[in-house]
Amino acid sequence: MPRLDSFNAGILQHLQQDGRMSNIDLAKKVGLSPSACLRRVQDLERRGILKGYRAIVDPKALGQDVVIFVMVGLSGHLRKDSLAFEAAMDRAPEVRECHNITGSVEYILRVEVADLAAYKAFHADRLGTLSMVGSITSHIVLGASKDRLG
Predict the structure, then answer these.
(1) Global model pTM greater than 0.85
(2) What is the dihedral of CA 87, 92, 97, 102, to 10 degrees?
(3) CA separation for the pair 9, 127 (Å, rounded)
(4) Which alpha helices (DSSP H) does 2-148 contain, by range?
(5) What domains sit in the chain, N to C, each tagged with a CATH number?
(6) What's the pLDDT tens digit per position in 122-149?
(7) Is residue 49 a contact partner of residue 15, using CB atoms and an 8 Å limit?
(8) Digit-coded pLDDT (tens) for 13-57
(9) What is the CA radius of gyration of the chain?
(10) Within a 10 A sphere around the Cβ of 76, how many other Cβ atoms?
(11) Would you say 46 and 21 are in contact if contact means Cβ atoms under 8 Å apart?
């Protein structure tokens, strides 16, 4: 695991808060010259520590008012089942995140939909049609005190 000095840690912290921050503003915040700051950012990118920049969209602004974490257990443990499930979730626009996890189920999904009727349709028409799905447990988010992904 690469060690980060205080400058690189500061650069990462500020870019996670505002990936569009100018190099000049970033340099001021971390206490470096603009050229030294730019070299460090480029080095963090080259080393794969900074993997990219993205726009964070507010799902509520797009009418996606309901967030549900879905625990999915597969009925089989063959690699083909996992790959087929992951491909199906990749094609599902409601699924914002799909994580293969340890424990009593194989996957946890972050699903964003307009309302419970839309989730019911996703549950029945997407998850409910996959032969490798053995169990589905839904956890509806009532509120989020911290959500760094938006």
Answers:
(1) no
(2) -50
(3) 40
(4) 6-17, 23-30, 34-46, 79-91, 116-125
(5) 6-46 (1.10.10.10), 60-140 (3.30.70.920)
(6) 999 999 999 999 999 999 999 888 877 6
(7) no
(8) 999 888 899 999 999 999 999 999 999 999 999 999 999 888 877
(9) 20
(10) 11
(11) no
